[in-house]
Design a protein that fits this description.
Rossmann fold, single chain, globular, 5-stranded parallel beta sheet, binds flavin mononucleotide, about 240 residues, alpha/beta
Length: about 240
């Protein structure tokens, strides 16, 4: 059975540093035979969680009370076997819109209140954080902790990060780590389905260069079509 890998980008820049590394992870996942999809939290409205879990008659259950883009993302997350999240570091944390989505994911986890397992249970996760300064491990560690607390499983080498900001694609260590985030998340998900799957770090210069060139070509094509815009509605 083909594994479904969903990449969620928390950046307003489709090909900024976090977008570049997330695309490397997804490319690696695809090479392992997975079906991949990339969505950005900037492509629509994600209303803030209003904490209805505390109402007299709680209604916090999948797919959430709001009918917005956030709900569409929650449905995509629910259908995925593997969730890879890439985010810029905004003040030592994931971006605000991504945090909105995390809060809204309560409805997936809160299915336990309705006698079902958490809908996050058993999904495999990996994270990528990109910044210019500090807080990379704090933001990535936060995401892994939260996703695990919702029931998700963390593979080895599940966090790639770079301080090279929009030049992250030229950070060899980070690119190889991002590739491994994709490879090992898919590898573990395959093992959980009793299939063959890699769960040890791969250090492969040729693969690194191949994937880097592919992502750079995509970046160039995107920028020649849409320009070097900040917030882009033209694609994740
Ligand atoms: C609001 C804001 C807060 C930021 N805070 C941090 C920070 O705490 N640590 C850091 O390393 N970089 C920080 N940065 C820099 C971004 O993480 C950096 O520009 C990164 O490349 C953005 O990712 P992107 O290229 O994928 O959009 C901040 C940028 C913004 C706009």
């Amino acid at each position: 059975m083909t594994l479904k890998v969903l990449g969620i980008l928390g950046s307003p820049h489709p090909f900024g540093g976090s977008g570049q590394l997330l695309r490397c992870a997804l490319e690696a996942a695809q090479r392992e035979g997975a079906e991949t999809k990339l969505l950005s939290v900037y492509e629509g409205e994600i209303k803030s969680c209003q904490g209805c879990i505390q109402d007299e008659e709680p209604n916090c259950r999948f797919p959430c009370i709001f009918e917005d883009y956030g709900r569409e993302l929650l449905i995509e997350i629910n259908q995925a076997d593997v969730l890879l999240i890439g985010t810029p570091v905004y003040w030592y944390a994931p971006s605000g819109l991504l945090k909105n989505l995390i809060d809204r994911m309560t409805c997936l986890e809160n299915m336990v209140a309705y006698g079902e397992p958490s809908y996050m249970e058993g999904k495999v996760v990996g994270v990528i954080t990109v910044g210019a300064d500090a807080g990379l491990t704090l933001a990535g560690g936060y995401l892994l902790t939260v996703l695990n607390a919702m029931g998700a499983i963390i593979p080895p080498w599940a966090h790639a990060y770079s301080r090279q900001a929009k030049g992250a694609i030229f950070d060899d260590r980070a690119v190889m780590d991002a590739i491994n985030v994709g490879l090992l998340a898919v590898g573990l998900a395959a093992r959980l389905k009793a299939q063959q799957g890699r769960i040890s770090y791969l250090d492969d210069r040729n693969l690194l260069e191949e994937i880097r060139h592919k992502i750079l070509a995509q970046k160039e094509a995107f920028e020649s079509r849409y320009g070097k815009t900040t917030l882009s509605k033209s694609g994740p």
